[in-house]
Amino acid sequence: MTIRPLHSIPEILEVIALEQEIWGASAPEDAVGVPMFVATLKRGAVLLGAYDNSRLIGFVYSFPGLKDGRPMQWSHMLGVRPEFRASGVGRALKLEQRRRCLASGIDLMEWTFDPLVAVNAHLNLRRLGVVVDEYVVDAYGDSVSPLHRGAPTDRFIAQWRMRSPRVEAVLSGAGPPAGGAAWGDVPHVNTVEQEGCWLVCKAHDLARNQPELAVSIPPRFTGMLERRPELAYAWRLATREIFSAYLSKGYRVVDFSLGPEAEGGTYLLHAADQRA
User: Rounded to an integer, what is the distance from CA 43 to the centroid of its chain?
Assistant: First the structure.
C-alpha cells in the first residue's frame, strides 16, 4: 500500500467514485464534488489516497478552519473499501494526515462520527487518542444515503490534539488512552438486554455522579438500521439523552472498549476533575 496526496481532476474523480460507492451519495446535497475539492485544495485542504498497486482503496479529506480564533483542520471524510477495513488503512491515512498537518504548524483536527458505530469509535478513541466533549443532534439533517436510512444523523465531534502527550502515548502503543487496560468495574449508565439477535437498551440513568461512567452501545448498528429500524431509533434516542446529559455536566468521552468479535462495545466517560 502507498499513500500520496491527490491533486488532479482524474484523481479527484476517483475519490468521488469511491465516495459514492461507500456512502451511496447519489444526491448532490450528500456529496462533495469537484469544485469543492479543487477550491479547498488551493487553500490548505489535505486530500490523501491509499493505493493497492494502482487501485484507490481509501482516502481522507480535510480542510482548514478556525476554532476559538486558532487555525485547525476539519476532517470531513475518511473512506476505505469494505474489504480493506480491517487492514489498518484508515489509521494509516489518519497518521499521514496528522504528519502533514503538524508539518504545516496545525496541531488540532476535529471531525464527526456516529456514536453508535463501534468500529469508528474504536479507531478514533482507542487507536488515535481523540476525546469527545460535544454531541450534535441531527448534525447533517435528513439524508437520502442508504447508510442512514432516514435515521437522525446525531454525531460526536472528535477532538484530536495531535501534539498532546495523550495522543503521542496512544500512537506509540504505550497503552489505552484512559491509562488502563480494563475498566470493567466502572458503573454503567444504561442497562442492556439481549432480545433474539439484537441488544436492547432497557433503561438509563441520567443522575449518576461517579468520576467514571460507562455507556454500552449495540453491535451491528448499521445492520440494525436496515433490519430493525424501530430498535435503531430507540437506541439513537436513548444515547442522545445519555450523552447530551453527561457532556453538559462536564463529562468527556475518553476511551472505547470494543466488544467480542469487533461488535458493539462500551464508552468510558471521565468527569471534569478526572480528565486524562
Answer: 25
- pTM of the complete model: 0.91
> Over 177-237, what HEC string results?
CCCCCCCCCCCECEEEEEECCEEEEEEECCCCCCCEEEEEECCCHHHHHHHCHHHHHHHHH
Pull the grid cell for residue 182. Answer: 480494563
Q: Does residue 180 surpass a pLDDT of 60?
A: no
The contacts of residue 261 (CB under 8 Å, 6+ apart) are none
User: Cα–Cα distance between 93 and 48 in angstroms, integer?
Assistant: 7
DSSP state of 127: I
Residue 48 phi, psi dihedral angles, 5° rounding = -120, 140
Mean pLDDT lowest among 2-16, 60-74, 138-152, 179-193: 138-152
Tell me the C-alpha to C-alpha distance, in Å, between residue 249 and each of 80, 113, 267.
Answer: 35, 21, 17
Is 262 in a helix, a strand, or coil?
helix
Q: What is the DSSP letter of 136?
A: E
Q: Which helix (H) or strand (E) holds 159?
A: strand 155-161
